[in-house]
Design a protein that fits this description.
It is built from six helices and 13 strands. It is α/β, with parallel strands linked by helices. The protein folds into two domains: 138 residues, Rossmann fold; 71 residues, Alpha-Beta Plaits (2-Layer Sandwich). It has a six-stranded mixed beta sheet. Helix 1 packs parallel to helix 2. The chain is globular, with a radius of gyration of 17 Å. The protein binds ribulose-5-phosphate (5RP). Ribulose-5-phosphate binds next to helix 2 and helix 4.
């Protein structure tokens, strides 16, 4: 199986955790795409009653097209379960997310969820975080100053570009600065530093947040319980 087939495998597997009448957080990305398609099929075939809370305009568009009823995070009392992808997961179940630039809504939805499942192909697992560039969402005003500060601190920043070569805008009209770190020895310390920099809206370190990881392996999906 290639990487895409592994993503499809875990996307389709993950909807087994969705039960009738749940409010479900719907993540973002190419793996989540398969989960949302499979959820749409279950709603159609089984008459499941689900409320979806999406994490990006992209996922909202897909879910709407499939007839999945949606509410915003502020309109629901709680989210029973969120299923999302991840860019890198360490051996102690810490994660980097935001490769699809949706980290802000993804973190808001995840932190308001009773349970969080990440669905990944096996290439996303690593011993220690840092091989995937760490996304930091920043407001445009003052972002050059923040960039210079990150550079001076040796965090190897780069502004995320869009397909036209301009600066990429998130769904909230912010910029993304990616930090090319190689390895992150102390993720909690780094998270503390980043969130306290004025102009930083959110960062892609998702620490102590996941309950279950479904990994796409060549011999089938493997379910790992984080805590
Ligand atoms: C989007 C994310 C995605 O979950 C992450 O980038 C994984 O994406 P994919 O499933 O396409 O590999 O964090 O902001």
């Amino acid at each position: 199986m290639d990487q895409n087939e592994l993503k499809k495998l875990v996307g389709e597997k993950s909807v087994e955790w969705i039960k009738d009448n749940m409010t479900v957080g719907l993540g973002t990305g190419s793996t989540v795409y398969y989960m949302v398609e499979a959820l749409g099929r279950r709603i159609k075939d089984e008459g499941l009653h689900i409320t979806g809370v999406t994490t990006s305009n992209r996922t909202a568009k897909q879910a709407q097209a499939l007839g999945i009823p949606l509410k915003s995070v502020d309109e629901v009392e709680k989210i029973d379960l969120t299923i999302d992808g991840a860019d890198e997961i360490s051996a102690d179940f810490q994660g980097i997310k935001g490769g699809g630039a949706a980290l802000l809504f993804e973190k808001i939805v995840a932190t308001n969820s009773d349970k969080v499942i990440w669905i990944v192909d096996e290439s996303k697992l690593s011993q220690q975080l840092g091989s995937f560039p760490l996304p930091v969402e920043v407001i445009p005003y003052g972002s050059q100053k923040l960039f210079a500060k990150f550079e001076a601190k040796g965090l190897n920043p780069s502004f995320r570009k869009n397909d036209q070569g301009g600066l990429l805008l998130t769904d909230s009209d912010n910029y993304i600065i990616d930090l090319h770190l190689g390895s992150i020895d102390h993720p909690h310390e780094l998270a503390e530093y980043l969130i306290h920099q004025v102009g930083v809206v959110e960062h892609g370190l998702f620490l102590d947040m996941v309950n279950t990881v479904i990994v796409g392996r060549q011999n089938g999906p493997e379910v790992l319980e984080a805590r």
